[in-house]
Amino acid sequence: MSAKDQLIKNLKALQATVQEVDYQRRGYHVEVLLDNDKVRDFAQVMRRHDFYLVFVGGMHSAPNIEVVYQFASFTLPCRIMGRAPVNGDCAVDTICDIFDGANWHERETKDMFGIVFKGHPYLQPLLLAEEDADLKPLLKSPTTLKPIEKLRCLPPAAPDDASAQPAPAAQPAAAAAEKPVLPALPAQPSAAAETTQRPAGMSQLDQTKKEHTFYLNMGPQHPSTHGVLRVLLEMDGEHCLENEPVLGYGHRMQEKMGESRSWAAFLPNTARMDYLSALIYNHGYVGLIERMAGLEVPRRAEFIRVITDELNRVQSHLLWLGAFLLDLGAFTPIMYTFDDREQILDILEELTGSRLTYSYHRVGGVCRDIDGRFSDATRAFIARLRGRFKMYDDLVTGNIIFIKRVKDVAFFPPDLARRYGLTGPCLRGAGIPYDIRRSEPYSIYPELDFEIPVGTSGDCLDAYLVRVREMEQSLRIIEQCLDLLPEGPFRNKVPRRMKLPQGDCSFSVESSRGELAYHMTSDGTDVPYRLKIRVPSFSNLSVLPEVCRGMLLSDLAMTMGTLDLVIPEIDR
Amino acid sequence: MEMFDLLPPELIRIVISAVIIVAFVFLNSMVLGYAERKLAGFFQLRPGPMEVGPFGLLQLMIDGIKLIAKQLIIPNDSGKWLFRAAPLIAFMPVVMSFIVIPFSEKLQVRDLDVGLIFLLGIMALHVISTLLAGWVSNNKYALFGAIRAVAQNIAYEIPMLLSLLSVVFISNTLSMQGIVKAQGALWNVFVQPLAFIIYFVAGLAETNRAPFDLPEAESELTAGFHTEYSGMGFSLFVLGEYTNMFFVCSIATVVFLGGWSGPPLPFYAYSGIIWFFLKVYGLLFVMIWVRWTYPRTRFDQLLNFCWMYLIPFSLVNLLLTAVGVKLFK
Amino acid sequence: MKEYFGLLFTGAKSLLIGLGVTFRAMITPAVTVNYPREKIAISPQFRGHTDLVKDAVSGTHRCISCLMCEKDCPCGCISIASETREGVKGKVLTGYRLDFTKCSLCGICVEVCPTAALEYSQEYELAGRTREQFHYDLLKRLEARG
User: The whole model's pTM is what?
Assistant: First the structure.
């Protein structure tokens, strides 16, 4: 029996509704509808099968708020969505002792929906301020709340085929005939739910603080936290015994904005989340809409998308290289990498008109075609950057001070990655060749020939080497695309007010930092009902408390640099 | 007392030279600060200061005026008088050290018989100011910087002392002018190359320059021990640091590179100062060059390097020098 | 013991190679441009704020006040004023107000316009003291361009 069949068998044993769905249409392979009390068993099954946690989210629909789980595997091409309704107290069991990454995801879901996760050790606001803990911004108002049947995917065959409908949804024909009676919003969590009520301002570290230690605040304003991130450190001399990242300083409610404007109008927002991989974020979003609506993209547009995505990836890694060395105290390499990065920015400015926050990809293609000048400039850039890699090796990679700082410092073992959902170059440094471009390929990546660089021991030096080699591989991809670029249209016309078919869909891309997953639920109009954005830096940062326990302060700053965080995408 | 036996011309000479020294210290900081920023620009493929004055030559002067004009912010919870005193302690001893440095054969304020010991003692005072500044600021980051500075400076004084002692064995005198004269044409750097390298590396650590600049590590500690200082207090620290750099390099020049000696120039008794400055600024160029190239070492690696590499090598060097002097003299 | 000396020599060699790289950089000319004394030419594809296109044939703008750009703007930064005049078919544009402090440069307005009446300008030196400085009236700007 194959691993996947064994998995489905174990899932069915949970007395849940397990259904294999069409990956081309939905973006995942198996959908599992659980009861409220089967969540932990489901997580246990996932853990036993070596899956990693992609995200934990929520969705507000009538009659119940749903908790949504997505899991994927490094080895098996299988993506699992699990849904469980909350009970009468708006509560569900926590899974954060099985998957440690769920700790932060559940805190965020509690912020947004008010769902109480029973047994969570520290269910305090993560992205919202403490005084907004009862705000619950993503709950729908009675006018916008829709019944769950309106949000489930309709089968592609005749709509009255009742056997294809997943339980517990009612018949779609019957639901459309009568006006649904919308229940009241869920009650406030009762005292029976176990939460740790702490007064505002106290931190999780107070639970375990020792006598002789002191708190140091690497505050929101700090030269080496790459954005507005606050890390609270419990210090014993130079050693950080415990640390707790405090998020939310840059929270802009991007997910709420995704629900309040049409799908076409949300595109600029995607670029603002991770401004260094803006084109990749654009690509993920338009890919999601195209997958949902079943739209075709011309081949030339796919090639152009890949070329610009990979240029964006190279630019992001160059900036990371400079900033990482700046964290370590070397002031010159950042200038050299920014010099190279300027070339990319100039090339992309000629093409898209913007230098950082691009809105270049469109649903159905790209918004402007490339010409011979772009190809010539890109080829010249590739030749130039290839010649510069030796200089970076001489200046940085071989430098004894650098190697001693970075080697054998912070380890990201594969099991840690599974528990937290760590993806990207840090995961590949641990030896796992997991890259969305290979395991769940999108666009034209299946036709391209490139390697996935992996490291051996999972320390920071390996993550560094993986990123440097990824730059070379990206250059290879760009060259192949320029050679294979077909003629043809660059954009298929798509109606601006196109209504998205009802149902949900997921789309994952490999951004410079790891796996970026969009998950959209649509109710049949052109305004999405729920847009969940799973960003890689969120899961990458959540490993910091465990990895950096007991480290020196210098090493903590260096590990944060290795994780390549972009705080605006964490805070969304 | 000896002071009252001095003839008025001698007293006048000392007073004038003291004034010249203080003026020189400020001028040196201006030149060195400008050189550092300009060179930093050249290493980073950019021009450096260009706006103020032709090629930015007046940049440091305007910066000095700006810093004097800034408001002195004194944190409420810090020790008021110690907070004001710390920058002065950083600045004054280093200025005093210029008394014994031989700028040329006749240009020296006072040639003490124990000149080298005097200078090593001055160098030790620098740590007190760093510790005081960090501690009294009532700021955890500043305290971090101060604590690191104390361990670093105390550790690196040992190889510095040992490498200088090797030279003392050879030249048989502790007076600075005597060491220069004892070298003659064969500079000590050819006789004691290992001691020179050890001294230079230890000198980088003593002045808190990269790759040993943990006390003021910008990316981890915001600004290290001088986080809370603004205006004149900060500028005194900067002045102290640049003067310390000049001071360390001038000891290296005097002890290893033959001080003011070189091909003869007219008025050689006085114009030896030109060779002296050339050598000192050459070493300062290397210091700046090293700063803008390497990342920072980690704290335990820094101390490890000192205790596991520099001290054993300098001890071996000292031993071999002693044996060699005994055998060949 | 061998490791001790081996590390020393490879380390020293790597340090000297690093010094060579920065020395070579020192003698390479600077790559920066002395802005604002010298300026780089901005590509005509640069996406600055929108401007009304001056039609070559009619000598004025092509806007028909259909309000598509205003409706589709995700940021709500466009407000158009128009009126009907006697003897003129359709609406006449009297004011096109762009609140650039809210614009996200997405380009939806340019793409959606049925008469291609909008284009991107190349202005990038935008600095001001008040918000009102960035409330552009594109019609007035077109008239000022002559």
Answer: 0.90
